[in-house]
Each structure stands twice: as structure tokens, then as C-alpha cells.
């Protein structure tokens, strides 16, 4: 592997000059810079980023921990966090936890050991309270429950209320909420609370609730839960599903069982992932501002690493997008 | 931030002892190790991975460059590469090129500068020939065209042939191939060649070919190309689409325009992404062994970094999965 000395020799300058240019601390004439750059290219020499990070005591890496990279919601999040990191001159270390507490913990420690600028967590198995002394943690799409850990989330209660009001406006009276992850975090509960509030305002009976398993969530196959819902509540005429893939699972079930959508049953999804408009029956859904939240989270991580004060909790609004399932 | 000295003081040992334990070169008694570990935990001290990587001249990072993290095929690839890297005790640095040559180049250099174990490229804007001196590059899902750069791809010709034979067996006689990226790489050309070979074997006229743009590929919205196909070739009764999202775009168009699938038109996709079975009309498609290829690529990168010789070119087979669109 070529060394700094090889580069200096080829460019006809001293090692100190090459090192000065790489550190950017002392001015080197642009003609010399060009000669050095050319020598580096010809030799295939890459300056050692790790050594420079070490000198700065910080790398330019940002860690992102997600439960899945395959799930469409998180695929969108990864895309936007990567773009935002790149815009800030940072690199992304992606960690997939499979919603396993031990993996999440190991990833968190690994990222800290690598002196990352910050860690954006969108996987919630750890007890945030225990991590409150971290100055590099940022929680995305959930509230941290601690003023010491900054977070950005979206207005889940509003999302649930918008879905409920929309289904009621369309004439639905037998409503079911399909959650994907109620046991594990409070996101689903807040959506259900908003859904109930919409019904209460109109004097309609509280919607029923059913939950899919984490395994179904990770595999993106909800047949079991959807089938059970239709067996238990055959009179259902409006379904609010807490993610688009679950909503598409309901559409698929209806197609197979010749249930007319939106005539006999209306469906509202959640997230407005790219998937919602691609699947053969485009979904009415609640749009989450994933791109805006991703950009905001990365900016917060960078600002905080630079010693600035950032908001402890930020909530983004959501809105309803009407397509073909209602 | 706590230092090595703070840990040593709290554990009641010398700095040398702590450093010995972290480097793992000299034996430290397990009782002392336990005391040090406890002190580290209490103080929130994370050993500096970067410094240790530097001593080893290699980090344990593997770079993955993809054109998109959002596109379902690449989302699947990312999921499997991350899992395989973690299994090998490595961390994944994810880079999204948006199919931009300059970004791809910048990411490649950044990864080299960070002394990654290896770079797996699934984005193909660079001239591989120029990178043939790299000992850390691995090409996934494309052939490198150079014996010096190892690659793993899948049998695209076979995939095209399987799709063609299946559509002919189902009685289709007016076939169209919808490619997504023919200009940019040879993958699509090989699939088309296989498709043509199936027709030639049965004495059927060569299928027509149309190509979607890269912009459509990245946005996963193929309305323009699909609409044009139906205008130009209204007699089409069989479509082979070079990815599942494009196939789903054809299904969506047919639903809107009341064209019966599979009665009037049969459709075969490519990739067998998770999407193929989730969309409301599950797709007949060609299964690519993404998980197996991801595992293999990571193992190759690690083996090569350890000084072992690895195959220069490996091809995985594909197979057809019949669902509801044929």
C-alpha cells in the first residue's frame, strides 16, 4: 500500500508539505496541491480518515438503528437519513436490530465506541431512561419520555383522528383499528386514541381494536390477523390500519374473498410510504413527513455535536391523502 | 468524557493494565477484568474503536454502495448484507449513490480512506477497469468484466428464458419485454436475450422491447412507459417486466383500464422482492437469491481481507415463482 512518503517523492515535495495539505491547517500553493493530488491519484493513495478522526476525537459518522431495512417505512427513513447525512458531510452507519434488545444494545455500544457524532434510534427496545446521560442519542418517531434525550416524532393522535373522521364522513359505522405494535410502544396507542376521539365526537360506538404481531410486522405478511378480524367482526365496514402494508394486506384479503373495496369496506392506511401509491389499488393513508423528520434529526445530531443547544422534543404534523380504498 | 485514567483509578489498577485488557495482547486476571469492566460501565466509558482500528490498519467496516435504499430490491439487499456483516462481526457503512457517478466516486474514495475491509458495489456508474488495482472491491449483481475484480451475479439469461417459456406455455403470442435500465448496464440485455431465446426455440416472433428511464426506476413510478406500451402495442398478451415494481405498474394500469389479468394479459416480474407477494395481486416473478448472494459477498470481502484467495466470478441460479398474474 502506498505511503505518505511515496506521495511526497512522486510529487517532488516533502512529507511535511503533503501532511500540511491533508490537514488543511497551513496554506499550500494551489500548484503544489494539484501536484500532490495527482500523485495520490496515480499511486492509489487514500489519506487515512480514521487517523484524522482520531485527532479530532470525533468521526464524521452518524449511526442509525432501525428494526428492519426491508420494511418499506424504514427503507424510506434510511433513504432520507442517508441523503441528509451526506448533505452534512457525514457518513451513515446502518444498524438493523430486528427488534432484538441485545442487538440494539450491542449496536448502541459499538457506535459509541466508534465515537460517532450521534445515534438516531428508530428501534425502541432499550430503556431510554438508562441512556439519559448520553449526549449523542436522538430518538426518531417516538417520544423519549426524558427531557435529556431529544426526539422528533409525528402527531399520532391527529393521524388517528383524521382517519376516523374520514371513514365516518364516508358513511362507515362499524369501525376496526388494526395495530401492528401496540405492546411495544405507545405510537399505536396514540393513533387508536385519536381514532376513538373522532368516534366520540360524532356519538359513534368506540371502534374495536386488534393487534398484529411483531413477527408479522417484520415479515410484512399479515394474513393471520386480517383473516381473524373478518371472522370475529364480519359486519366491519371501515378499517384503519396502522401501516400501509397492513392496509394492503386487507385489500389483498378482500380481493381474494370478493369483498368490494371501497363499496362494502373502506380502508385507511398509515405512513404514505412509496408503496401506498404503487400497489395495484392505491391506498388512502395518513402521510407522515419522513423526509422532513429525517433531515431534522440529522441536523439536530450535528448541531448538538458542535455544542449547540437543540429542542428536547419536536412534533411534526401529519395529513390524510385520499386515494382509491375509501 | 471519561478517560482511560479515570477507569484505571476507579478500578484500582494501572492505566497499563486497562490498556492491556482492551488490546487483549497480555493476560489480565478475570477478577481484574471484571473490576475494569464494571468501572467502564459506571463511568460510561467506551473504548475507542477508531484508535484500535488504526493500530490494526483496518477497520471492521464494510461499505455497501447502492443506487437507492428505498427501491424494494435494494432494501432487501441492504437487509441481507447488514445481517451477514453483523454475523461476521463487521459493521455496515451504507452509501446511496442515486446513480450519480460523482457521488459513487466520492463514496468509494471515502470508504477507502476509512480503511474499510471491503466495498460491495451494487451501483455501476464507475469504470470498473480503472479500479482493477483495488484489492477491496467486490461487485454484486453484475459482472465486473475484469478478472482482477471479484463479482457475484445471478443468471440473467436463464431468468429471461424461464419468463419467456412460461408465458408461451400459457398461450401468449404477442410478447413485450419492459426493461428498466438497458442503457446503463448489461443485466437487462441478458434478460432480454434469454427471453428471445425462449421464443426462437418455439419459432415465435422475437418479442418487442421497451425501456423505462432511470428516473422512473428511482421513483418506482412507471406510468409513462406502461401507458406508451399499451398505445404502441395494443395487441400485447404477455409482458415480461425486468423488475417487480414495473410488473405491478402494469397490473395497476390494467386495473384502471379494465384489462383482465391474467385473462387478457399475463405478466411476469423479476426479483421476487417481498413486494411481489404483498401487492394486492401477487406477481408471478423470477426469484433472485438476494440473501444467498449478500451472504456470499460479505464472506468474500472478509476472506480476501484476511489474505485468502477468492473466486473471481460466481453466478447464482434463479427460478420462476408462479402466482396470480399468469
Describe this structure in words.
- 2 copies of one chain form a homodimer.
- The first copy, chain A, has helices at 4-11, 15-23, 30-43, 49-56, 72-87, 101-113, 156-169, 187-202, 214-219, 223-232, 244-256, 274-278, 290-305, and strands at residues 61-66, 91-96, 118-121, 137-140, 151-154, 175-179, 208-211, 238-241, 266-271, 284-287, 313-316, 319-321.
- Helices cover 45% and strands 17% of the residues of chain A.
- Chain A is of the alpha/beta class and 326 residues long.
- The longest helix of chain A has 16 residues, at 72-87.
- In chain A, helix 1 (4-11) packs across helix 3 and helix 7 runs parallel beside helix 8.
Instruction: Name the chain pair whose interface involves the most residues.
Output: A-B, 53 and 53 residues
Rg over CA atoms of chain A: 25 Å
Oligomer: homodimer
Helix content estimate of chain A? 40-55%
Number of strands of chain A: 12
Termini separation of chain A (Å)?
62 Å
Order of helices and strands of chain A: HHHHEHEHEEEHEHEHHEHEHEHEE
**Major sheet of chain A: size, sense and barrel closure?**
6 strands, parallel
Average of per-residue pLDDT values of chain A: 89
Proportion of β residues of chain A?
Answer: 15-25%
Question: How would the blueprint of this fold be written?
Answer:
The structure is a homodimer of 326-residue chains.
Chain A: H1 4-11, H2 15-23, H3 30-43, H4 49-56, E1 61-66, H5 72-87, E2 91-96, H6 101-113, E3 118-121, E4 137-140, E5 151-154, H7 156-169, E6 175-179, H8 187-202, E7 208-211, H9 214-219, H10 223-232, E8 238-241, H11 244-256, E9 266-271, H12 274-278, E10 284-287, H13 290-305, E11 313-316, E12 319-321
Parallel strand pairs in A: 1-2, 1-3, 3-4, 4-5, 5-11, 6-7, 6-8, 8-9, 9-10
Antiparallel strand pairs in A: 10-12
Helix pairs in contact in A: 1-2, 1-3, 5-13, 7-8
